[in-house]
Amino acid sequence: IMKPMPVRFDLKTLHIPAHSAEKLLSMKDMDWNDFLQQICSLLDSVEKNTGAARSKLNLLYYLCTVAVHKEVASRLMSSQLFPVLIQQLRAATSWDIRAKVARVIGLLALHTSELRENVPVSEAIIILTELIRENFRNSKLKQCLLPALGELLYLIANQEGKKEHPRECWVVPLAAYTVLMRCLREGVRLFHC
């Protein structure tokens, strides 16, 4: 496993206030929802040109920096942002954006302490599995997508283990384990993009 490169975002081109994790946690619900709505709108925008794609990547870099805070990660994971990230994973035209979305998802999964049952984690696992399978010969893409898949699987296992009477809230398709095992057999080195 290789150490990920440090993430830096450009404050001047962020298009939203670059609140710290502490500031995000102290926000009132209305301000938090407005902030999330801004992020989701920016992520939903179409990358019509390289400037728009760079702006979206910059926003994803910012999300990487705040996703390492446990309470912020848990809050973001349970918000409307997570389905938007899943949509970007599926529909983004740029593989750079898909790779950074996968990194944000992986960081959220790594740092989330409590996972609500309504979070569409299964959908994220299905899309990551499909993307890895479709691009199996591209080792660089696999190295970007596999950590997020692994973190989501670990998060689900950890959450199920915490419950007294675990029940399957999140369905993990057999294909996810098959793809993961195949990658491990072939000796793919993992790192976050």
UniProtKB/TrEMBL annotation:
Keywords assigned: Kinase, Transferase
UniProt GO MF annotations: kinase activity
UniProt key word Zinc-finger: no
InterPro entries on file: ARM-like, ARM-type_fold, ULK4
Protein name: ULK4 kinase
Lineage, top ranks: Eukaryota, Metazoa, Chordata, Craniata, Vertebrata
Chain's gene name: Ulk4_0
